[in-house]
Amino acid sequence: MHTQVIIIGAGPTGLMAACQLARFNIDFIIIDTKPAPTHESRAMLVTARSMEIYQQMGIVDTVLQHGKVISKFAIYMNGREKAALKTAEAGNGLTDFPNLQAFEQFKNEELLYEQLKTTGHDVLWRTSLLSFEQNEDFVLANLYDKSDPFRKISVKASYLMACDGASSLVRQQLGLDFAGGTYQNKFFVADVQLNWQQPPNKLIASLSRLNFCAFFPMYGDNNYRILGTLPEGFAGTDHVSFDDLKDVITNNVKLPLSFEKLNWFSVYKLHHRCIESFRVNRCFLLGDAAHIHSPAGGQGMNTGLQDAHNLAWKLAMVLQGAAGKKLLDTYHDERHPFAQWLMKFTDNVFAFMTGRNWFIYQMRTHFMPYILRLVLSTKWITRRIFRVLSQIWYSYKKSPLSLQFIKQKLKFSAGDRCPYVMTEVDGKLQSVYHLLTEAKFHLLCIGGSLDSDYLPGNLKPYIKIVNLPLNESWQKLGVKTDLYLLIRPDNYIGLMSDEISPALITGYFDMFKANVN
Fold it and tell me: CA-to-CA distance for 112 and 53, rounded, in angstroms?
């Protein structure tokens, strides 16, 4: 069997990779050992940045209709609210999706799987990777079809995308060191129906000396995800049931509640690990196969989705002959630093929220509530927190793909996510993101006006021109005269300039056209 890309793993990351490759008309196969998408909720939050990807794909309305908006994040101690962050509309003016959105992992998988099938593709379920080998020109993978014990499949492809999770066989066969460690405490997760008097859109983190519990609202009436640390008394216990923890949870939160139904329960250890190279020749590692960390901030699944979004268009350009292999190095250049930052960020947050050290406990219980009340009442700090949690703040400024030639003093730069600007779209005022939905680069001509004949002939299939007025929204960002932004297919600024020319556009693409396949 021959294809262009093999995707190992059909979780959220692998399904996103498949959907993105389908958008660019790249041939691929995607396999998974499971018989179907998972039915466990697992990851909970979908960030604004991920919502923008879903918007680009035309499937965001499903998340809005079947997800749950979290309007408040509160910290509790001894049954009392000590500090709170109003998250409802916290991102107004920053994105089309200004709320924290709960949309469980299995729903993301169902959404992406249904979208994949609309493109004429499907997953090879019950199919495992046995082994693979790379040479200069291709990857050869040996697969095993569990539904037919006598059927072995050999697949030859240009590239392989490893989206096979924290226990990645691809990573193991590549011999990559998964550097990091394991948190000392064990953790539990339970999806339950609760009977209590708390508002349905409120996320609660309850802190104590002995353990930590967080209550995430889920879709439906009184459905919650409870995440917590096991008290030291359970350290030597091999089998812990949810019934064993009911009193632990109620003693921690000290709020009147009863458990109506248990839908899922698991006890596990958390790890924080990251590989040193996201690319090994023709193999790429994405999501949990490349980096894992604590669930603090709900960043994990979203980071995997964005890994796939970052890599897919680059693979497409190389496979279509519009770019050389050099472009593929930028996947590691751009995503590895973010994974490193994220691991440190979640480590620090989680250590503070769950640490049993006497000093940390005293800080957490006696000082932080007052500090948090002051901090969270400040609007610009609230917006900054939203930018971090939503992942819209991150920039590829240091990427070799980020170039700028400007004299204007702007509030954004090359490598940033496309500025969130309101403009007239189809006769009504909408964000510019409604114009960035095609699987190609977009050349935003702000104040200027160009047509497709202006583009170099060989680049016309890869760039769409969008003419925009220099309105008040752009002026607030420092734009005084004509400005040209070349927006990458993943909606980050690749090139920005006060002036534009066919030679400048060609030069940008020539920058990564060496070693064309």
Answer: 12
**Cα angle 439-135-286, degrees, rounded to a multiple of 5:** 45
The strand ranges marked E within 201-309 are 202-207, 212-217, 223-229, 257-274, 279-280, 283-285, 291-292
Q: Print burial letters for 33-66: b (CB count within 10 Å at least 16), e (below 16).
A: bbeebbeebbbbbbbbbbbbbbbbbebbebbeee
Q: Which residues contact 289 (CB under 8 A, 6 or more apart)?
A: 9, 13, 162, 163, 164, 165, 166, 168, 170, 171
The hierarchical CATH code for the domain 5-67+103-179+273-348 is 3.50.50.60
pLDDT digits (tens, 9 = 90+) for 15-38: 999 999 999 999 999 999 999 888
Mean pLDDT computed over 170-177:
97
Cβ atoms of 205 and 75 closer than 8 Å = yes
| pLDDT tens readout for residues 196-217 | 999 889 999 888 777 789 999 9
The residue length of the chain stands at 517
Round to whole Å and give the CA distance between 98 and 100.
7
DSSP string, 452-481: GGGS-GGGGGGEEEEEE---HHHHHTT--S
Identify the DSSP state of 2: B
Q: In 121-214, which residue ranges form alpha helices assigned H by DSSP? A: 169-174
Is the distance from CB of 123 to CB of 30 less than 8 angstroms? yes
In the numeric block, the tokens 């669930």 are attached to 295
**Distance of alpha carbon 181 from alpha carbon 272, whole angstroms:** 6
Which neighbouring-strand residues pair with 496?
A: 404, 485
- CA 38, CA 80: separation in Å to the nearest integer? 37
Q: Are strands 223-229 and 483-487 parallel, antiparallel or unpaired?
A: unpaired
Residue 353: pLDDT band with limits 50, 70, 90: low
CATH code assigned to 403-510: 3.40.30.120
DSSP secondary-structure letter at 488? -
Domain boundaries, the chain: 5-67+103-179+273-348, 403-510
Do residues 159 and 225 lie in contact, with contact meaning Cβ atoms separated by under 8 Å? no
Q: Give the DSSP H/E element, type plus range, for residue 84.
A: strand 80-86
Contact 389, 47 (CB under 8 A): yes
